[in-house]
Model the fold of this input.
Amino acid sequence: MTEDVRKLTLYLRESDREPGGRLVADALFDLFQRSALRVSVLVRGVEGFGRSGLVESERLETLAVDLPLVAVAVDRPQRIEHVLGEVRSLMSSGVVTVERARLVTDAVPEPTGGGTAAKLTVYCGRAERAEGGSAARAVIEHAQIHGASAGSVLLGLDGTVHGVRRRARFASRNADVPLMVIVVGPDQAIAAARPGIVEMLNDPVVTLERVAIGDPPPMPADAAEGSQWWQKLMVHCGADASSGGRPLHLAVLDRLRTEGLAGATSMRGYWGFAAGSRPHGDSARALRRRTPVLTVAVDRAQAVERAWPALQSLVAAGGVLTREWVPVVDARPPAQA
Amino acid sequence: MSAVFWPLIAATGGAGALARFTVDQHVTRRAGGALPLGTLAVNCSGALLLGLITGAGVSGDAALVAGAGAIGSYTTFSTWMYETHRLAEEGQAVAASLNLVISLAAGLAFAGAGWAVGSLL
Done:
């Protein structure tokens, strides 16, 4: 069985403040808590740029003061609709999308329908266990065995799980803070992996969306009122993928910027794989990081179209590129400082 | 050292830190690229200044205020190490090595040049 839900996504900055002076990220998750949203997760990017074209990066000390954030919330359509007005009033700059998704509530396989590829997102606590280990890692393992193309575990800093606020704290175990596992692959691979994934989790929140791995998908006819259809690009880079002696995600981000996209955010996965690599994470024994990096960009279709060929040749070095149509309900340039 | 100098060291130290942030960010934004050039720029310009001051014979409390206060907080060893470590973490061994070697060589050259100029004053 599946249930029709909406996925609200905000692309913002760490230092963004709402009109009342509070940090937007704090105000946003207080709102999600008050509204007891089924699931929400805040993820901090390690690198990114916005409309100004200025790069923020964790790698360089003085560029790490205003990193990009991605906030995601999933619930029934009317509940998302209900918070949307207040979300928009909090936001100072950035992009807001409200996508259709299907919440997978049981393990019975169902055709994903229509698309050639699908994206499965699992929301659970950081310390949730499955099959004798970390649930998130088990989901990744299971997806790869069934032929998924890429998957990443993104740790949240804040969020709600089944309506309860779970916020990460410094020097704390943070066991209940939500994480997000994103898996993409051909329809049949995701359909095959789905029942096992739903079954291994205690109280799963799993959503399913259509994406395209290759050619552009047909544009949906039914944009919600007041929104317009843009495209979302996602680039999954494997742990060992590199281009010109640099990690692939840096080359991807550079390319997105020089192609003139309005913005992009790279998020470091805690565990994951892309394009045939084995699932990897960091090891205490190795200096070199071996984690996947997921880069997301949302822009008008023609901008995505323009960047597409260059990105396709870049990801041949060990990445997976997907795109999908997303209804954008708000897109605001940064206020002039 | 007289306690009179404490607030002075605090003030010049604060100013040095602000100058570091401004110069580092300005250079990094413009240079982008593979090496952390913002950090290189503050470390080299700081080495030049300290060379200049000591070469000019400034000593005692004044040298302490300028050296430990202003330039001490303007230059950064820790960021140099941190950013080198980040390059190594990403598997960029050549860039990490270059960041070490270039910073050392350029830092020594700037300090020496500063000293040479300062001693002429």
Observations:
- The interface with chain B takes residues 54-55, 59-63, 242, 245-247, 250, 287-289 of chain A (CB under 8 Å).
